[in-house]
Write a structure and sequence with these properties.
With 184 residues, the chain is α/β, with parallel strands linked by helices. It contains five helices and eight strands. Strands 3-2-4-5-6 form a five-stranded parallel β-sheet, sandwiched between helices. Strand 2, helix 2 and strand 3 form a beta-alpha-beta unit. Helix 1 packs across helix 2. The longest helix is centred in the first third of the chain and has 18 residues. It is globular, with a radius of gyration of 16 Å.
Length: 184
């Protein structure tokens, strides 16, 4: 399978500004960060959640709990997609009962990842509400799931994907629109 970068949809500088804007929106929507917790979906959602927590703590001068969620076993395509699943650690070292929880992911596409994350999160408790923050909403939803906080909407076509690069994982910060084809 061949891939080709069609466009850079978020540059390194814009990515920092987008994360800062998302942090401010989360704080404003929740009237502060009191009892608020963020939970990132592995892998890039977890890294984005770490960045959002740092920004929210700068804004509010309060410690914000951060959790990391591995949803591999909750995916509805688990048996079809994974022959040897790479199950990683879920780290929720705080109670989520009766507090608002913001789920964080890098890209929202069909909604199936978010649904799996909701199922996984509910196994740990009953938050007062669950909000969804995504860096990119690329459309093509298969489930009725909508984010509460969106970094950027990028409408994609068949054969296109979004690649989020984060310094901590990929050595650079940017978001690309990728053309994917079997025989380019």
């Amino acid at each position: 399978m061949d891939t080709k970068i069609k466009a850079t949809v978020i540059s390194s500088e814009d990515l920092n500004r987008t994360v800062t804007r998302l942090a401010h929106q989360i704080v404003e929507y929740n009237s502060g960060a009191e009892k608020l917790a963020l939970v990132g979906i592995r892998t890039r959602g977890a890294t984005l959640a770490e960045r959002l927590v740092k920004k929210i703590e700068e804004i509010e001068q309060k410690k914000v709990p951060l959790g990391i969620l591995d949803i591999t076993l909750y995916r509805d395509d688990f048996k079809k997609r994974f022959k040897q699943p790479n199950i990683q650690l879920t780290d929720l070292s705080f109670q989520i009962d009766d507090i608002p929880v913001v789920l964080v992911d890098d890209v929202l596409y069909t909604g199936r990842t978010a649904r799996a994350a909701l199922d996984a999160l509910m196994d740990y408790g009953r938050p007062s509400n669950i909000q969804l923050a995504v860096l990119i909403d690329r459309g093509h939803r298969e489930l009725p799931i909508q984010p509460d906080f969106i970094g950027k909407v990028v409408t994609t076509q068949v054969g296109e994907e979004i690649k989020v690069n984060l310094e901590e994982i990929d050595g650079q910060n940017c978001v690309h629109l990728i053309q994917v084809s079997e025989n380019m």
